[in-house]
From TrEMBL:
Domain PPM-type phosphatase intervals: 46-333
Protein name: PPM-type phosphatase domain-containing protein
Signal peptide, first to last residue: none
PANTHER family: PROTEIN PHOSPHATASE
A molecular-function term among this protein's GO annotations: protein serine/threonine phosphatase activity
Pfam families: PP2C (PF00481)
InterPro entries in the record: PP2C, PPM-type-like_dom_sf, PPM-type_phosphatase-like_dom
Length: 334
């Protein structure tokens, strides 16, 4: 998620133009894929994942978890997408610690909802107190815990999303935490929400330089050379609501500088996995920015191999010109 804009851009809120010249640096793409399986209520449960680096000039900031583990006589499927911003230290920490913190909660079996919520909050506190560098960056999270193949618990903060398919119909299991929808909470905490142009152009931009262009006759999307570096002139940026003009999600792990105005408590939902439940998709916003829940389900449900389904979702997002990191897990129940 390219969700955070440096503080110096927050002051530009009232003066932004619809036409600007922006220096773009793009990096090469890399990818990671994998698969596995566990036992389910109606046969084996299989999963596959695909991670594709976006075009921003920084390392991959998405992390994931996808595995089955034995725990107190049960089999747990643990699946997660962690979409970092301002570095990868926070998603890397979540990958290592969040599920173990959830399973350490004494109430996990008796009050799973409360246990997950407590673990999210305590993990965030650990991130913020660990050291100054760790808490400076941030991350969204969407986690799914499958118990013995028949009970699913989903939790999230931020805009990474979980979507279940039952009878071919997409069911969103998570809630996108966006500044506009949680404006009251942000303002009650002393923060504000302002709309900033989407410099990231779908997540791809590393913003290095802004030069305002006042020439209304300038050609749209014209490529120029500035000191030997290509810059692209982009017309009419779309507005993106941001907390304090900086962060495009209203809940996140980390983000120490904004934490007094942000929440890290998750929304938690659950579902029974029955014979009509086909697949679960977890993905970062690099997928959901360009694809609806139903589009994703319609594509993935036709592919029996979940790893191939996850890869095809990532490929389709790229075909639809997603520029952000794209991370996707597909779990097939039957």
């Amino acid at each position: 998620m390219m969700g955070s804009v440096g503080g110096m851009y927050a002051d530009l809120t009232s003066t932004l133009k619809t036409r600007a010249t922006v220096l773009i640096l793009t990096g090469g793409q890399s990818s990671s894929n994998g698969t596995g399986k566990g036992r389910g209520h109606n046969g084996s449960v299989k999963y596959g994942f695909s991670l594709v680096k976006g075009k921003a000039n920084h390392p991959m900031e998405d992390y994931h978890v996808a595995k089955f583990v034995p725990h107190q006589g049960r089999e747990l499927g643990l699946f997660a997408i962690y979409d970092g911003h301002l570095g990868d230290s926070v998603p890397a920490y979540l990958q290592k610690h969040l599920f173990s913190n959830i399973l350490k909660e004494n109430e996990f079996w008796t009050d799973t909802n409360t246990a997950i919520s407590k673990a999210y909050e305590r993990t965030d506190q650990s991130i913020l107190s660990h050291n100054p560098d760790l808490g400076r960056g941030g991350s969204t999270a969407v986690t799914a815990i499958l118990i013995d193949g028949c009970k699913l618990w989903v939790a999230n903060v931020g805009d990474s999303r979980a979507v279940l398919s039952r009878g071919g119909q997409a069911i969103q299991m998570s809630i996108d935490h966006e500044p506009n929808t949680e404006r009251g909470s942000i303002e009650n905490r002393g923060g504000f929400v302002s709309n900033m142009p989407d410099f990231y152009n779908g997540g791809s931009l590393v913003l290095v330089l802004i030069l305002w262009v006042n020439d209304e006759s300038a050609e749209h999307d014209k490529t120029r050379i500035l000191g030997g570096t290509k810059v692209r002139e982009i017309d009419k940026f779309g507005d993106v609501a941001r907390v304090n003009g900086q962060l495009a999600v209203s809940r996140a792990f980390g983000d120490k500088n904004l934490k007094t105005h942000l929440r890290s408590d998750p929304d938690v939902t659950n579902a029974d996995i029955d014979a009509a439940t086909e697949i679960l998709i977890l993905a970062s916003d690099g997928l959901w920015k360009v694809m609806s829940n139903q589009d994703a389900v319609d594509l993935a449900i036709k592919i029996k191999d979940p790893q191939k389904a996850a890869k095809e979702l990532a490929v389709e997002a790229l075909n639809r010109e997603s520029k952000d990191d794209i991370s996707c897990i597909v779990v097939r129940f039957n």
